[in-house]
Amino acid sequence: MARTLSRRTLLRGVFGGSLVSLALPPLEAMLDSHGEAWADEPGPIRRYGVFFWGNGYAWNTRGRPDRWTPTPGPMGWTPSEQLSPLGPDAAGRTMTDRVSVITGLEPKTAIPASPGGQGDGHMRGVAVALSGDRPRPEGFHHPDHIFALSRPTLDQVIARHPRFYATAPRFRSLELSVSGNRFHDYGTWTAISYNGPESQNLPIRSVDALFDQLFAVRTGDTTDRALLLDAVADDARRLHGLLGANDRQRLDAHLEHVRTLQRELTGSQAACQMPARPARGGGFDGAPGNEPLLDKLDAMARLLALALQCDMTRVFSLMFTGPGSQTVFRDVGATTGLHQLCHDENWELSRRATIYSMRCFRRLLDILAATPDVGGGSVLDNTVLLGTSEFSAGDVHEVGNFPVLLAGGGSGALRPGTHIHLPDGNLARVHLTIQQALGLGVDTFGFNGGETRESVAQVLR
Amino acid sequence: MVKTLSRSIALLVALSGCDGVVGDRPAPAHVATAAPPAAVPDAGTSHPPAVLPPFAPAGVVLATLTGTQYRNAVADLLGSGLPEIALEPDTNPYLFTAIGAARSTAAERTVRAWEAAAHRATEATFAVPERRVALVGCTPTAPDAPCVRAYFGRFLRRAWRRPASAEELDRFVGLSRRLGAANVWTGLRYATAAALQSPSFLYRVELGAPVAGAAGRRRYTGYEMASRLAFTLWNSVPDEALLDAAARGALDRDDTLRTEARRLLRNPRARSAVRAFFVQYLGLGGLDGLARDPTLYPDVTPALTASMREEVERLVEDVVFTHDGDFRAVFSGASTFLDARLAGLYGLDMPPGAEGFARVELPSNSGRGSLLTTAAILAVTAHPNATSPTARGRYVRERLLCERVPDPPMNVPLNLEAGDSGVMPTLRDRLERHRRDPACAGCHSRTDPVGLGFEDFDAVGRRRTMEAGRPVDARGDLDGVAFVGARALGEILARDPRVAACVVRQVYRFATARLETESEARVLADLEERFAARNYRFLELLVELVASEGFRTVADGGR
User: Of A84, A192, B93, B316, which is least packed with CB atoms within 10 Å of its CB?
Assistant: First the structure.
C-alpha cells in the first residue's frame, strides 16, 4: 500500500458535499509538476492526428507502373493517379499545398532471425508505422491471434509527453474507426492505438457512440455515479499490494480510466458548439465491413472537427480501415474484401480502393480545413496529421517505399505542399519530424536499429 | 496405429525446411508460443516419456471477466431478462478469450462499458418492486436496517467470490446510506452498481495461500477454487451451494472437489460453457461477419452462418452431454444437426415435420460425416472467394493436432497465378508449384496434402463434384495415410492419439487462461492418460482437469 501511494500525489476533491481522497494517475501528476511555458502561454494549439488505412496501396510490383509517387508541380506537387483525390476538386480547390508526400522510406528496425517470418506480415507494418518499433516475436504466428506491439504508439507517446498538454484535456486522445471489418476473428486486430503491450485504446466504432461520448448531455445522477467510483478505487488499492508488477500496471491503468470517467461525470462540459445528432447515425452500423465508408467517415469527421475545435482533445487516430483490411469497397465495384483482392493481385480493384481511401482522406482534410480554429486559421492549420498504412504493396507485404502523407500546418511548424523522395530512408525520421513539429524537444527516435537523429527537415519550417 | 504414427514421426523429422515443430517442448509463458509437441514420442502407449521435467505450478493469472462471463454473472446475480449489455469485443490471443482477459489491460472504453452496464442492469432490477425485494430479501425501512447488511454480505460473497470483510461491509452499507438519503432503494441500487464495478468482481483474484512444507507453491483457497470451477465450468460466478462447499473445505479435498465439479457439469450452464470452449477452440468466431463474395455465394447470410455455428455447437453438445460418450465421435459420427437452411446448403432432406434444428442421418454417399464436413469448419478455413487447401491443412495440423506450421518466409509471392497453357488450372495444379519449390515445400507438403482432401466441399461447405470444369479430386494424405474426402479424414482423426492430446492441451489453456508451461508437461501427460482411461468422455476430462495440481496450485511470488 505504501508503495502505491508513494508514487502518487493525493488530491483533495469535493464530491457530493464531502471530502474524498483521490489518487492521481501518472498523467495528471506529470502535468501538475510541469506547467511553465505551456501552462501560461497562450501559444498556438498543436494537435496530432493519424489517418490509417489497411493493406497499403497498389505499388509498382511485378513491372507495373508507379501510380503512387507524385511529380513536381506548381502547387507543391502534382498528384499521381492514386493520390489524385488530393489534387483539384470540382471547384478547383487542391490539397496538394497542405499535404507533404514523403516517398522512399522504409522501416529500419532489425528483423530477428528466430523465429522466422518476422520480417513479414501486417503486424510488423503496423508496428513500424505507428510505434516506430518492431512487434514482439510472439505475435507473428497468425493463428495465435496476437497483435504484439511492444510499446506505445506515437499518438500516445505524444499525448503523454509532459510538454504536450498544459492542462489535462477532457479526452487525452480520441480513437475512431470507420470500417467495422476486422481481420478474421482476431480480436486484437481492432485497434491502432496502444498505451503499451496489450493495452489498446479501442476505437469508437459508431457515429452514435461518438456523438454520445462528445456531446450527449449528462443528466441526473452523475455526481452520485462519480462518488461511488471511490468505492471502486478503494477496492483497487486493497488489491494493488497483492499483485505482481505487471498486474499492478494493468490495475493502475484501469484505475486511471476510472478517474477519467469520474472527472467526466463531475466536470462541467466545455462550452462547445453542440451539433445536431447526425440523422443517419444509426444507419451506418450495419454489417461490419459493408458500411457506406465515405458517408460514415464524413459524419465522424464532422463530429471530430468540432471536438478538436472546442479543444476536447488534441490527439486523435482515425482507423479508416483496419490492418489486413477485409473491407469490401462496394463503391468501387468490389465484392470481396481488400485483403483478398490484394493477394489475388486484383490490380485494378486494389488501385480503385486506394483512390477511394484517398478520397476519404481528402474528405477528412476538407472538413478540418473548413473548421475555423479558436485562435485563427483552421483546425487543419494547427494539426500535424499523418496518413499512413501498414504496407506499401499489400499484395507482397512490401514495406519499402512506405506510404507517408503529412498533412496540416502544425501551427506553422510544418512546411506543407512538399514532395521529398528519400530513397532507402529511415521511416522513423517521420516520427521524429512529427514530434519536433509539435515542439516536444525530442532529438532522437527509433528502436532496434531504427534509431535516428535526423528529421525530414524539408517539411519543417 | 503405432506403426502409422512412427512413420509419420519419421516423415516429420525429415522435413527440416519446416522448422520448429518436431519435439518442441511447450515454451515458458514469457516466450509464449502455440507450438506444442508435434507428436509425443511413442504416443501409442499411455506412458509419458521419462524425460518430462518435475511439475512446478505456473504463476498468478489475473484475468478480468470475459464478455460472456460478465453477462452470465450479472444475470446470475441480478436475475435474467435484464436489458442487453453492450461491451467491447473480447480479444482472443491463442484462441481463447480467457487468455485475452488475463493478458490485456482493460481499455478505457471497456471501463466505460462496465460503468454503464452496472447502472443499466441495477436500474432495471431495482425499478421492479418484486425483483428488488427478491434480490435484497426484504423491504428495508431504513438505510441501516439489519437486512441491508445481510444483503450486502450475501451479494458481495457471490459477486466477489469471497466473503466481504467487516470493513468492506461497513463501506457498502455506508455508501448505500449516503446515496439513499432520499430513498432507501436508490442507495441500495447505487451500492450494488458499485459492487459490480469493483475489481473484486471484474477481476478473478486467485492468488493462492501458502502450503506447509511446499516451498514455492501456493494452493488456491476454497473460495478461489469456487471461482475457478465456476468460471471454467459455467462461465459465470459460483452459486450459493458452491460457495458453501468452499466455506466448509469441500473444495480442498479430491473426492468432494470432484463431486462438486460433477454437480456443476449437470447444470445447463455447463453446456453453454462447453459450447463456448469449442466455439473458441474451433475458431467459429470467424463465422460472425463471414466475408464471402456474394457474386459467388449469394446465399451466405448472417442467418446461415449462425446456423452453421449452431450445428457444431449441437454436435458437440450431443456427444459431450446427451451421450456423455467418447469425444472422438465428434469426428467420426454419421449424423449431425441441421435446420432447413443448412439442409438446403447440404442438399439433404430434413426429417418430416421437423422444426428448427433436428438430427439428420448422413448417408455415406453424401460425403458428410460430423465435424470436418460441417459448413462451419469448411467456411472458416476458406478464402472469401475460393477454397484453401493450405488453410484447411493448416487447420488440421494446428487446431486439431496441435502442431505448428510456420508462417510463410519473407516476401514470397502470396498468390498463385494462372499458368501460360491457356487452360485454367485447378487449385490442386497451382498448389503443386508450392510443393516443388524448396522454399515453400517444407511447410506446404505438410498442409496441402491434408487440405486437398477437403476439395469435395466449396468455400461455404457445399458439396461439389466439379472444379474448373473437371471432376473434383479430393485425394488427401495425412502423414502417409491416404484418404479421399473430408469424411474419411474425420475417421482417421478420430483414431489419431494426437487429436485427444490436442484437445487436452487446448481445454487446459481455456481453463487456466494461459499457455501451459514446460513444467506442466506432466500434468498434461497425466490428463491425456486419464482421458483415455475414461474412454475419452469429455466431462470426465473436465473433472480430472479441475482436480489436477496444475489447476489447483500456483507459483509463489507473483509473476
Answer: A84
Considering only residues B42 and B250, tell me which one the structure prediction assigns the higher pLDDT: B250
CA-based nearest distance B541→chain A, Å = 24
Nearest CA in chain A to B287: A185
Q: Is A50 exposed, middle or buried (0-12, 13-18, 19+ CB in 10 A)?
A: buried
CA of A108, closest CA in chain B: separation in Å?
Answer: 15
Which residues from A are below 8 Å from B383, CB to CB? 340
* Weakly modelled stretches of chain A, pLDDT under 50: 1-41
**Containing domain of residue B340, as a range?**
289-408+426-495
- Give the pLDDT of residue B212: 87
Query: Is residue A299 situated within a structural domain?
Result: yes
| Distance from C-alpha of B452 to C-alpha of B446, rounded to nearest angstrom | 11
Q: Does the structure show a pLDDT above 70 at B33?
A: no
Give the chain A residue nearest B204 (alpha carbons): A239
Domain ranges, residue A188: 46-216+275-459
pLDDT (0 to 100) of residue A243: 93
Query: For position B254, what pLDDT does the model report?
Result: 96
- Closest-CA distance, A396 to chain B, in angstroms, reads 6
Chain A residues 206-245 with CB within 8 Å of chain B: 224-225, 227-229, 231-232, 234-236, 239, 242-245
User: Comparing B533 with B292, which gets the higher pLDDT?
Assistant: B533
Considering the domain architecture, whether residues B189 and B334 belong to the same structural domain is answered as: no
How confident is the model at residue A158, as a pLDDT?
Answer: 98
Better pLDDT: A42 or B177: B177
Judge: B19–A116 Cβ closer than 8 Å, yes or no.
yes
* DSSP-assigned beta bridge partners for residue A199: A196
Q: Is the pLDDT of residue B288 over 90?
A: no
Calpha distance B179→A210 (Å, rounded): 30
Q: Is A115 on the interface with B (CB under 8 A)?
A: yes
Q: Give the model confidence (pLDDT) of A376-412 as tens digits.
A: 899 999 999 999 999 998 888 889 999 999 999 999 9
Q: Show residues of chain B in contact with A136, CB under 8 Å.
A: none
Q: Evaluate whether residue A436 is within a structural domain.
A: yes
Secondary structure letter of residue A291 according to DSSP? S
- The reply to whether residue A227 touches residue B178, judged by beta carbons under 8 angstroms, is yes
In 10 A of CB A271, how many CB atoms?
7
From the CA atom positions of chain A, what is the Rg in Å?
22
Interface test with B, best of A18, A247, A256, A328 (most B CBs within 10 A): A247
| Residue A20 forms contact with B (CB below 8 Å) | no
Q: What is the pLDDT of residue B221?
A: 97
Same domain, B184 and B298: no
Segment B9-13 long-range contacts (CB within 8 Å, at least 24 positions apart): B9/B38, B9/B39, B9/B41, B11/B479, B11/B480, B12/B38, B12/B39, B12/B446, B12/B479
For A145, name the nearest residue in chain B, comparing CA atoms only: B93
Closest partner residue to B409 among A117, A190, A244, by Cβ? Answer: A117
The CATH number of whichever domain residue A179 belongs to comes to 3.40.720.10
List the single residue in B62, B100, B172 with the smallest CB-CB distance to A250.
Answer: B62
CA distances from A37 to A28, A41, A47, A165, A166 (A): 17, 6, 17, 11, 8
The cell for A405 is 502523407
The whole-number pLDDT of residue B193 equals 97
pLDDT at A20: 27
Q: Rounded distance, CA A81 to CA A380, Å?
A: 24
pLDDT given for residue B74 in this prediction = 98
